[in-house]
Structure formats: structure tokens, C-alpha cells
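Page 37, continued from 36.
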């Protein structure tokens, strides 16, 4: 049922820029959590008590709001959740499936931007670009002379953990630098010409660089642990543009402090937005604020996709980018 004026009610549980907010309001009756000023549970209770309760919600990927049984209990009218990222680790997919709640992700909207960012982080670490920038800005070039040598990207052996949409684009970009690509995934990828490693330790031992590009779930939490870092070795570099929980952050810090790996490029952290103080002081580490997905172009594309998924749901059509797929045993799994 549509609300007064014919607009369908939608919960907005993520911050948006003015352009996206205006686009949403033009099509839907938006119940904005951040504009309400209310605690989350109070906001959800008020939404559930609305004469025309919301049937869909927009949530930020990787944010503090988790779509679990408690969340769904609070707003039982929901039939659709649209998340604004490729990752769905903040959503209980099995519970959504049990309740008949469909879930839409961001599809491949961000994939090129994240792949670009991964390459940028890797070059910045290897060539010490951020540290060299600080060196110049502090006036040390004139007083101390040339900055220390970096390492080239060309010809490096790069192991990619997760050869999905993003991982595949990272591999293609690295091929242009003459890198040798290896990968680890749940299973070998059809059509992939790169060497497959069934375990991450073997991948690390064969690589100069590890790029983390996999989903976060029970199997991949801390997939890069102390043993993997030891296998990577003292000249190795880790780049993580997936989720902070994919890397054992404490083990990574120890390996960097002890010189057991050479550096890291990190866009994600285990307890965002808190970043360990140890990382902030390391010149061989490049840090960004979980921003690999955010460009002007991707933000516009995401807004269009969010609206299209909502319109599809309210029209009874299939979602454009479903995050769930049904299997014969009656449960759901992540799409490969």
C-alpha cells in the first residue's frame, strides 16, 4: 500500500549527500534515521507504528547498523533491504531468507573504483609516495638530501585473495604492470588463467604482495593471520580493500613493527573508524578511510541502482542486484 500522495515509505539508515536524498524523496516517503535524532530502537518502533509502515530499508554497508533478527523483529513490515555496498557481512542473510525479506547489494557498481584504489595503495606503499610527500612538506629534502629508495611494482608476484568482480579487475590492472598473478578462492575460477592456490599460506609464500579482496564471513575472518604473514616474508606487502576483519590486525602490527613484512596499504580496519595508534606512526603503511568505493561517478551510479532496486521491489519485479540466491536445501548463500 502506498502512503498519502502515492509515495511508498522507505527507511533511510545511512547518511547520504543532498543530491541522493533529493532523488529518494522525489520517489518515496523517506523516514530518515539521522534526521530524526532518535535512538535507533525508538526510531524503528515509531516506523513500525506508522499507519503505513515501511516495506523497504536502505542501510550502509559495513556500518554500525546490523540487519539481524532483532532488527527485523523491530520492523516486521519490511520486505526488502537495500545495502549500499558489495559486502553483506552486516546482514543476516539466512534470517532474511527465512522471513522472505529480499536483499539487494551494490552489484559491480564499485568494482572499478575499488580496483583502482587497490593499485593506488600498492604503488603508494612500494614507492613510499605518502612518506616522501611528508618528507618534502617538512623541508627535509634540502637539509637531508634524497629520500630513501622505494621498490617498483613492475614484475612483482601478486597473490589475490578472492578473485570475484573486484579481484579480477585488480588482476587485469596488475597485468599491465607486468606482474605475475596468483590467486586463492573457494574454488578455481572457470576461465581464469592465473595460478590457483588452494590455501592462503601457499599463496603468500609464492607472492611478493598479498591483496585482500574477499567477502568477510566465518571462513575468511582473519584469513591473513600471523602464519600467512610469516609466509609472505620480510619483503612482502599487504593491501586490504575488503573488510578489516579479513586481516588479524594485531598480528599485522606485530609483523610490521618487527620487520617481518615490508609494508601495508589499508583502506579498512577491524574497529572502524578507530585506527590503531601503532599504524599511524609507520611510514611504511598507507592508510585511507574506507573510501575505495567512493568517487563522484560511483556515488551517482549507486544512487541510480538503489532507486532502481527499490522501484523493482515495489513493482513486484526481480531485484537488479540480489544478494541472495536460493538453493535446493531451502537456505541461501552468497552469490559467487
Amino acid at each position: 500500500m502506498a502512503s498519502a500522495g502515492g509515495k511508498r515509505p522507505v527507511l533511510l539508515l545511512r547518511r547520504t549527500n543532498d543530491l541522493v536524498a533529493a532523488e529518494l524523496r522525489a520517489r518515496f516517503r523517506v523516514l530518515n534515521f539521522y534526521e530524526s535524532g532518535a535512538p535507533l530502537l525508538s526510531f524503528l518502533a515509531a516506523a513500525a507504528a506508522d499507519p503505513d509502515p515501511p516495506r523497504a530499508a536502505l542501510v550502509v554497508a559495513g556500518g554500525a547498523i546490523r540487519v539481524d533478527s532483532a532488527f527485523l523483529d523491530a520492523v516486521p513490515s519490511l520486505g526488502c533491504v537495500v545495502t549500499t555496498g558489495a559486502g553483506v557481512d552486516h546482514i543476516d542473510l539466512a534470517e532474511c531468507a527465512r522471513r522472505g525479506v529480499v536483499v539487494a547489494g551494490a552489484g559491480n557498481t564499485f568494482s572499478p573504483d575499488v580496483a583502482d584504489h587497490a593499485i593506488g595503495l600498492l604503488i603508494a606503499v612500494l614507492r613510499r609516495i605518502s612518506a616522501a610527500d611528508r618528507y618534502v612538506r617538512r623541508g627535509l629534502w634540502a637539509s637531508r638530501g634524497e629520500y630513501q629508495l622505494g621498490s617498483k611494482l613492475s614484475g612483482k608476484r601478486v597473490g589475490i585473495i578472492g578473485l570475484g568482480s573486484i579481484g579480477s579487475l585488480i588482476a587485469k590492472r596488475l597485468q599491465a604492470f607486468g606482474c605475475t598473478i596468483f590467486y586463492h578462492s573457494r574454488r578455481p575460477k572457470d576461465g581464469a588463467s592465473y595460478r590457483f592456490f588452494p590455501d592462503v599460506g601457499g599463496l603468500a609464500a609464492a607472492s611478493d604482495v598479498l591483496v585482500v579482496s574477499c567477502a568477510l564471513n566465518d571462513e575468511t575472518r582473519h584469513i591473513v593471520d600471523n602464519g600467512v604473514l610469516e609466509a609472505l616474508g620480510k619483503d612482502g606487502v599487504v593491501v586490504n580493500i575488503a573488510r578489516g576483519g579479513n586481516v588479524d590486525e594485531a598480528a599485522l602490527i606485530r609483523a610490521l613493527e618487527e620487520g617481518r613484512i615490508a609494508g601495508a596499504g589499508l583502506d579498512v580496519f577491524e574497529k572502524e573508524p578507530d585506527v590503531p595508534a601503532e599504524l599511524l606512526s609507520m611510514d611504511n603503511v598507507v592508510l585511507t578511510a574506507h573510501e575505495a568505493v567512493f568517487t563522484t561517478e560511483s556515488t551517482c551510479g549507486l544512487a541510480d541502482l538503489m532507486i532502481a532496486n527499490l522501484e523493482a521491489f515495489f513493482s513486484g519485479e526481480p531485484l537488479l542486484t540480489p544478494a541472495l540466491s536460493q538453493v535446493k536445501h531451502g537456505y541461501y548463500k552468497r552469490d559467487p
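The first strand starts at residue 8 and ends at 13. Flag for discussion at group meeting. The chain has a mean pLDDT of 90.
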